[in-house]
Amino acid sequence: MTGFGSATAECLNKKFTVEIKSLNSKQLDLTLRLPQGYRQAEAEVRALVAPRLERGKSELSAFVETTSGEAAARLNIEAMADYRRQILDASAKLGIPEPTDWYSVLLRMPDVIKADTPSEAAEPEKEALLACVKEAVEGLMEHRAAEGRRLDEFFRLRISRISDLLAEVPRYETERITKIRSRITDSLSSIPKVEYDKGRLEQEMIFYIEKLDINEEKQRLAQHLRYFLETLDAAPGQGKKLGFIAQEMGREINTLGSKSNQADMQILVVKMKDELEQIKEQVLNVM
């Protein structure tokens, strides 16, 4: 969702510059900064920009400058002359000295500087501004597309690493069950003069080991990994869906960790979590 775009255009001795930037956000938050005299086009600008951006905290700024070499503001000579007469009159009547720096005094007076900003822009100027906005937005979208391609590669690499780590889990499972069984029998053997039904012990041990079985978690995690890749290959605009899949992947990885009871498997789980956290951080950048 992050990106930046800019564009320039000229029309009727005016040069327009439009810049737009976008950051991550769950909703569209669009701020417009248009020059005085062009703000009547705000609704059209928003209607042009919002459908393209869809989401993100975005800010569009437009600037206009004259290219004819004429000043953008003019001195109101009549007003300055009138202020000077009033100040001289006040000086004579009040017995106070006249200003030593007339320019600094007069230029601070109201309405001395008149800006040549029209109350409403001409139609060709407005059209030029809208064309400039459209070009800037397209530049931002190209920036987003390039970022999307980088993220696609990033996600596929992380999913591949989690898949490789998941493939290593089975080689520790037999050892894990053997250690659990040995730990229980050794603990019973260490208790002096204890009698127990070996058949009942075997049943309870099977029940306990079944509770630690992780086959379902492995299968569901593998399904989530495939579904994540399938969603990447689907139509754009799947950012929220990818986020939901990542959450489900996290649940299965956490359950694997809680059931593992084996140091090597727990190391694999930690590595999976590290890869998944990187996915969760970057999935916020997806539309």
Question: What can you see in these coordinates?
Answer:
The longest helix is centred in the middle third of the chain and has 46 residues, at 123-168. The N and C termini lie close together (6 Å). Helix 4 (123-168) runs antiparallel to helix 7 (215-233), helix 7 packs antiparallel against helix 8 (239-260) and helix 8 runs antiparallel to helix 9 (263-283). Strand 1 and strand 2 (14-23) form a beta hairpin. The radius of gyration is 36 Å and the shape is elongated. The protein folds into three domains: 3-70 and 121-143, Ribosomal Protein S5, domain 2 (2-Layer Sandwich), CATH 3.30.230; 73-115, no CATH class; 147-283, no CATH class. The chain has 287 residues and is α+β, with helices and mostly antiparallel strands. 62% of the residues lie in helices and 15% in strands. The protein has nine helices and six strands; from the N terminus they run E-E-E-H-E-E-H-H-E-H-H-H-H-H-H. The strands form two sheets. The protein has a four-stranded mixed beta sheet with strand order 1-2-4-3, covered by helices on one side. A two-stranded antiparallel sheet has the order 5-6.
